[in-house]
Amino acid sequence: MAKVALQLPSPPKSQFSVLEGNGKVSLIDTNGHSQGELPNVTYSVVHTIPGRVRFRLPRLRCDADYAKRLEVLLTADALVKNVRVKPAAMSVAVTYKSEKVSDAKMRSHLHDLIQAASVVVVLKNSTSLSETEKEASWPGLQLSAVATTLAVLGGPLGLPIPPLIVVLPIAIATLPVLQRAWEGIRVEQKLNIDFLDLMAIAITTFQGQFLTPSLMLGLIEVGENIRDRTARSSAQQTLDLLSSLGQFVWVERNGDKQQIPIQDVQRGDTVIVYPGEQVPVDGSILRGKALLDEQKLTGESMPVLKKKGQPVFASTLVREGRIYILAEWIGNDTRAGQSIKLMQEAPVHDTRMENYATKFAQKAVVPTLLLGGAVFAATRNPSRAASVLTLDFATGIRVSVPTTVLAALTYAARRGILIRSGRALEQLAEVDTIVFDKTGTLTKGEVDVVSVESLNPATSRLRVLELAAAAEQRLTHPVAEAIVRYAQAEQVEILPRSKWDYQLGLGVQALIDGETVYVGSDRFLRSSGIDTEALNGQQKSPNSAIYVASNGQLQGIIKYSDLLRPESREVITALSTVEGVEIHMLTGDNKRTATAVAAELGILPTHTHAEAFPEQKATVVRQLHEQGKTVAFVGDGINDSPALAYADVSVSFANSSEIARETADLVLMQNDLHGLLEAIAIARQAKQLIRQNTGLVAVPNLAAMVIAVFFGLNPLAATVVNNGSTVVAGVNGLRPILKNRQHKALLSAR
């Protein structure tokens, strides 16, 4: 057990010892000081569930050293499974071993670590490294470079270099290959590519042909490093869907209002939610009414007016009004909390690219060994046997395939497309079905005015807009904001209003320019004594509408909608016609709105799924997957995260919710759907390049192997063929990056 001492500077004079075992450490106060002696670091508990707690620490934002020390301490703790520190958000989330410690004791323990991080100083680092750190620090490339240099100096250049000096770096550099070959035999119970490499390296080294094994080792290391860079860890981080909720909530207990931490809310409590706050629980309204923005949870683009007896859900936003809610479901039992469970149950895929080329190379191992043995038995010439073993497909494929993937990922990133793994790239090339969320993905996700029409010959449309904008100014309703925004774009003067009365869910009455103006629903106008008979001839439209009246007369109508993104039609058409992809649309909106938007985009009614909650969206994706389709899902909100987790490829935007970005395999940094078309093109080009590279490696190696078997071939010549084809295939795989650089050079030349 290694020991690391962490000392707190004086004052206070406390020393902590960190005992390490199995890659974890624990913090122990060796001087018996109480936690009160530590400097006080202000923090609050934002959210807690068994086995996980999230803190808000203001100090994280302004003290980078403290953030780093805290992360080191938490990561090193024996009871901690996972740590996520976000200084910009002043947030730290800790997942711990709840089976080994009670929640109360762990909270107290974490308190000590939070305080200790402010003054802790590392006196001695641990002597043991994790497996990942060991792999990262292994100087394989350097050793093979040294061996190659010595082989060239002692071979073609003829310098008197003792063979032992050349053999030593070759032997050390071969250790990872030996380890992988042994694991293949012991764990997988088969001879793998590494065993083939090991045999070729051993034979050529024993024959004194040091340049051959040195070059092989260098190329193997390059391939392994590149392949590891293209792989994403398969360990899913726990994502907290409720992290955006306030840390304190108002409740009414025994007739008194009190503010309590969100984790202390209990079922049966009366929770009070004010304008601008998010609902912290699932429940029903006891009294009051409010305009609720449910887009984050359901995808519904328009706020919904809810009154006594109606249900409300956690993570929805109260735009206007105040409501008293009976808490029926709290924490992870809420509808939003169930989305956490859905994502945690989603399958975790292997993130290292599983390509047909590597599998083919693995299958060729035993035949190559048998062929090499047969050649040796027939000729008694170890050089010819070594040539056969050297002419394998493994090295070329293990270098060229990851190089192609890395080049594609790099090129995509330069184009504003973040593809997180080689597996995502591979799946994207195979996608034949794409499911789009509607709100915020195919649409802008916010209300916009579509048209302003006058219903009175004596009133112009600009006057209708002028009156509406004046009445709606400074109201927080999204329709009011859209009208004011549209009026400003039309350069309409927004007149002052003297008296006004806003009725939640109905409309606003205001005195403007000497006129009594009414702006709101047709029901609001009728209740105010306005004759709305002129509306009877209006055709039904998929767009919503608000009406304007003044001095007792109906003046006009303003239609509004969640408008499509400018590129949506073009992208959908290109995907369905050019790429041959089947398009589906999912939305939490009602069926009428969903059907209208689908028709405008050319999406079939049978492929349109309306009124879908998160679990229903995930079900649709699973059903398509079970039909044998390779499914991509494009979404941007909490309500989309389960579907994103279940899709073969998940796509989101840079301005999406944090949960959607973290769940997605592919993030469009430009917030433009054209990036999806480009990503598919990049993935398919990478797949084509991989096939080309397989041919570039296989053809010359097969030809050289025929020569080696029937006529004999020098091992160095075999290495040149093998490594030469590898280099050509590797350069071919870099074409996306090289093409991008040439394009930039041409632009700069102009």
UniProtKB/TrEMBL annotation:
Keyword Phosphoprotein recorded: no
Pfam families: E1-E2_ATPase (PF00122), Hydrolase (PF00702)
Protein name stated in the entry: Cadmium-translocating P-type ATPase
The keyword Cell membrane is assigned to this record: yes
InterPro entries documented for this protein: ATPase_P-typ_cyto_dom_N (IPR023299), ATPase_P-typ_P_site (IPR018303), ATPase_P-typ_transduc_dom_A_sf (IPR008250), ATPase_P-type_domA (IPR059000), Cation_Transport_ATPase_IB (IPR051014), HAD-like_sf (IPR036412), HAD_sf (IPR023214), P-typ_ATPase_IB (IPR027256)
Domain (P-type ATPase A) ranges: 249-344
Entry-linked NCBIfam families: ATPase-IB2_Cd, ATPase-IB_hvy, ATPase_P-type
Domain of life: Bacteria
Family per record: Belongs to the cation transport ATPase (P-type) (TC 3.A.3) family. Type IB subfamily.
Keywords: ATP-binding, Cell membrane, Membrane, Metal-binding, Nucleotide-binding, Translocase, Transmembrane, Transmembrane helix
Major site of localization recorded for this protein: membrane
Membrane topology: Multi-pass membrane protein
Compartments where found: Cell membrane; Membrane
